Fold this protein.
Amino acid sequence: MITPPNGVERPDLSVVIPCYNEQENAAAICAAVVAEIEALGLSFEIIFIDNHSSDRTVEIIRGLCARDPRVRLIVNTRNFGQMRSPTHAVYQTSGRAVIGMCADFQDPPSLIPEFVARWRAGADIVLALRQTESRNSIGLRTLRRLSYWLARNFGDYPVLPGATGFGLYDARVVRATRMLSEPEPFFRGMLIETGYRLETIPYARPPRAGGQSKNSFATLFDFAMSALAGSSKRLLRLPIYIGAVGALLTLLMLLGGLLAFLFDRPIAGWLIAAVVQAEFALLFGFLGLLGDNIRIISERTRGTPLVVEHERINFPVGD
């Protein structure tokens, strides 16, 4: 989190807008956000972070920065993905609260006044929950539902279906998430993990204002798996549970063999099944212990930078 230097007033709000090939939307989303916040009479900064666009996105945002010092830009050296890049930008903010949103108007700026009202009323986190599915393929919708099911059943904290990270977070919440030092940050899950007071706002997600969605099946699958891996320790312990069930089945098969022996029945099949089941139980047990040790090693050796910056514009000197 940036600490503004002497003589620089800390803004009320920081708005983070990640971009990747958003030349059709960058200027329009900036103007819409400025209009909403100026109507509230609040001071603000808008931080665009560009994830190595191949179109005119950076050029357009540079022009916005030249015209308004409240607009700032971070340009990454390469595409660091949908998890790391936005989170890095959030950690560069200096506002008393941070608003995260996309550049394509599927996160409507008109919700900003409601976010601020809930924050002023005492909420630390205000998340918008999408109530309508965008017009994606059956495969993408199925993947989303599967990822929610996995997170709900194996995650370490509750999930909010429809939450994309679009919302407002108090600065102390942002500080708490940064202390988690996640190398692959599932930010919307980390917000819940902090335990701060959370409120939600349902909304109907509008269509994109322009351009094409960058979310293919492959990118969403990668995002879902990274999110699950980063937010679930229980999943690594799943083989231990399977091993425990296997051990119980081994005991039942041995009991079956004992009963077969007592009633003068063949016992070879029971014994062979018990040995095979015992081997599987031991295998899954060791896999579970190995996974838990990998988790512990990972937690002790974090420190990978989220992104590498190529340049930044309009940030205070020294940041």
Q: What stands out?
A: The mean pLDDT is 83. The radius of gyration is 25 Å. The CA atoms of residues 7 and 153 lie 50 Å apart.
